[in-house]
Amino acid sequence: MATSAPTESPVKLVRTKRFGDDRGWFSETYSEQSWAALGVSSKFVQDNHSLSRQAGTLRGIHFQSPPHAQDKLVRCTRGSIMDYAVDLRRHSPTYGEHVAIELSAENGLQLFVPVGFGHAFVTLTGDTEVIYKVSDVYAPDCDGGIRWNCPSLAIDWPLPASGPTLSNKDGKLPVLAEFDSPFTYDGRPLLPL
Q1: φ/ψ (deg, to 5) at 37
Q2: 80-87, strands of its sheet edge to edge
Q3: Is 91 a known active-site residue?
Q4: What is the sign of the dihedral through the CA atoms of 158, 50, 149 and 169?
Q5: SS3 of 141, please?
Q6: In sequence order, which residues have a C-beta less than 8 Å from that of residue 164 and are 6 or more positions away?
């Protein structure tokens, strides 16, 4: 069963229990019943899996707009990442603010990133694999993002001296000032993890 930090924040850090013996360990990474008890009622419809060859690979800041907006449940299964959720809900008192947590194969932590938040991660090690569940299918016409180095976000990315490894698409995303958010504030501000 998973446990969550005691918070009403829409973004949730989840610690799954590992049961170990001489062979290794076992962990239940998702259980609809357990997650509902934590306040996560998403119905996940797709799993995504990425491999990033180099440390410093930055993916994001991504989201999907309605009608195909996505909740995400993110975990790192090989290597480690610094994972980010950025509040993109208009009229939110924490609009443009973010939380970050290291997710690794070793620590087994997961981050729940709900609709209304941009998601990004940067790899801290080479050959890093990330798996995440999403609550809606990929819809290219709803795909969006905010540029990783937007000055108003002021994210202090843990990058190598050479800078990030980015996709062409991620390097051309708009900054927050150019973004007209389709997401509305639900009364729950972003809180520290």
Answers
A1: -65, -25
A2: 98-104, 80-87, 117-123, 58-64, 143-145
A3: no
A4: positive
A5: helix
A6: 56, 57, 58, 122, 148, 157
Whether 132 is catalytic is: yes
- DSSP class of residue 171 equals H
Q: Which of 84, 95, 119, 132 is an active site residue? A: 132
Q: Which residues contact 71 (CB under 8 A, 6 or more apart)?
A: 40, 42, 44, 112, 113, 114, 115, 134, 135
pLDDT tens digits, residue range 124-155?
999 999 999 999 999 999 999 999 999 999 99
Catalytic residue, from 62, 95, 98, 119: name it: 62
Q: Alpha-carbon torsion 174, 176, 180, 185, what sign?
A: positive
**CA–CA separation, 55 and 76 (whole Å):** 14
Q: What is the pLDDT of residues 28-52, one digit of tens each?
A: 888 888 878 877 889 999 999 999 9
Instruction: Kindly state the percentage of the chain with pLDDT values over 90.
Output: 82
pLDDT at 6: 42
Q: What is the token pair recorded at 40?
A: 């996560």
d(CA 89, CA 187): 10
Token pair of 153, please?
């976000």
Contact 87, 166 (CB under 8 A): no
